[in-house]
Write a structure and sequence with these properties.
The chain has 107 residues and is an alpha+beta fold. It contains three helices and four strands.
Amino acid sequence: MPSVWTYSNAAMKEILRTSSISLAESLRVALEAEGISAFVSNANLGGLPPAAITVAVADDADYDQGRLVLNQLQRPTFNAPPIRHRFLRALIIAIVGVVLILCANLF
């Protein structure tokens, strides 16, 4: 259940609690790019265990959209090279290995 904060007579809902300053700031920037006002608290503590860094949206109505932005931000990306590139690299490594073994046997 998200925490609810009050800030200048407006309720805020916590979207993220983390020890990573970079993740918290990345989320804040991504939320602001979507037009959602967001606040980071405890950023100066550096994510020390008793006081985690939190990110909250200023308006309760933006909470669901903020969760979507967070999910997109945390989605893993797989940048594995295509199979043919991996095969070509493995083939080159194997050829170089065979050449090195043959050269070592000659001396």
